[in-house]
Design a protein that fits this description.
globular; 67% helix; mainly alpha; ATPase_csu/dsu_sf; 16 helices
Length: 335
């Protein structure tokens, strides 16, 4: 029998860190001001340790946002032990997967090692030191071998990498390759979360929501009107995805009611970028609310905190770029 996951101690300590996240006043002070004013106001906030007043260029500001997000996320892992730690490890493994795909993409396309490494968050099992070794691989095949040798992003996915790469060399389809790698990782996450049990359900629901979102966008983007390689489905079946592409959103909306407005809007304007953003916001809102309203004995707290930190970084980047978000950022705040 699996030992009961104990989230209580970690949740208590994580909730104590919520005041360090930006709030409504902070966002208001960043909106509609110059870059220099934004840098000055960030320096007066919890971003102070990440900013050098003598270096406030666009790149420096964005790097500061990235460093803060890394610190916030890295601080989550050590708060949970045992089966709760296993579940939270999956939450951060979302970044391990993105890091792995970024490293493989960089190796496959011949990007400089420094560019590959700059795309790595390094907040989970894949740390910066190991990422540097993989980023130095001369080509995609070598990067695959190095990841497999390090058993990254996790042992199950590492075992699937060589076959996925061999298939890629035959068909030359990078989207199929990355989806194959991602699907292997997600299958492993699902097994781990189901092993942990009910307390880990919020993490599984997040993974499923992100899969459904990615699958919908993949189907809508497919120019051949075929069924592309998809991630493991969550609540939205392949039939529902194909119906949405044919202009019938009802099967998808029945599975995910929060998709109604974004899908109906997409039917009117066919703006995939707007649809992608709106679907993201629906996932973020649901997850962030769990910090205050979710089960204090389960994974609602780490899910909400991690999503809130990720939303903060995205929103600050938008405000620094002078792009007004298309939604009220207060809907994503932990307050």
């Amino acid at each position: 029998m699996t030992a009961r996951a104990d989230f209580i101690a970690g949740n208590t300590r994580l909730r104590a860190r919520l005041p360090a996240l930006l709030g409504p006043v902070d966002y208001d002070q960043l909106a509609g001001v110059s870059r220099e004013a934004a840098a000055e106001r960030l320096a007066a906030s919890t971003y102070r340790p990440y900013l050098n007043r003598d270096q406030v260029g666009d790149r420096r500001l964005l790097e500061a946002v990235g460093r803060r997000l890394r610190d916030l996320l890295r601080g989550v892992r050590g708060l949970y032990a045992g089966t709760a730690g296993t579940a939270v490890g999956v939450l951060l493994a979302r970044h391990d997967l993105l890091d792995t795909l970024a490293l493989l993409r960089g190796a496959r396309t011949g990007q400089p090692a420094a560019v590959r490494l700059a795309a790595v968050m390094g907040v989970g099992a894949l740390d910066q030191r190991t990422a540097a070794d993989i980023a130095a691989a001369p080509d995609g095949a070598s990067a695959v071998l190095r990841l497999a040798a390090h058993r990254l992003p996790d042992p199950l996915t590492a075992r699937a990498l060589p076959a996925a790469w061999e298939h890629y060399e035959l068909n030359g389809d990078p989207d199929d390759f990355e989806t194959t790698v991602a699907a292997a990782a997600i299958d492993g996450w699902t097994d781990r979360l189901e092993w942990v049990g009910r307390a880990a359900r919020p993490i599984l629901e997040l993974i499923q929501a992100e899969c459904d979102r990615a699958n919908l966008l993949a189907v809508l983007r497919d120019p051949a009107l075929e069924t592309p390689r998809l991630l493991p489905t969550g609540l939205v079946s392949v039939a529902a995805l194909l119906a949405a592409r044919q202009g019938d959103p009802q099967p998808a909306v029945a599975a995910r009611p929060g998709w109604r407005q974004p899908l109906e809007q997409h039917l009117r304007d066919e703006d995939l970028a707007a649809l992608e953003w709106d679907l993201d916001v629906a996932v973020w809102r649901q997850g962030v609310r769990g910090v205050r309203r979710g089960d204090p004995l389960g994974a609602d707290i780490p899910v909400g905190y991690v999503l809130a930190a990720e939303c903060e970084a995205r929103t600050v980047r938008l405000l620094l770029a002078g792009i007004a978000p298309t939604y009220d950022v207060r809907d994503l705040l932990v307050r």
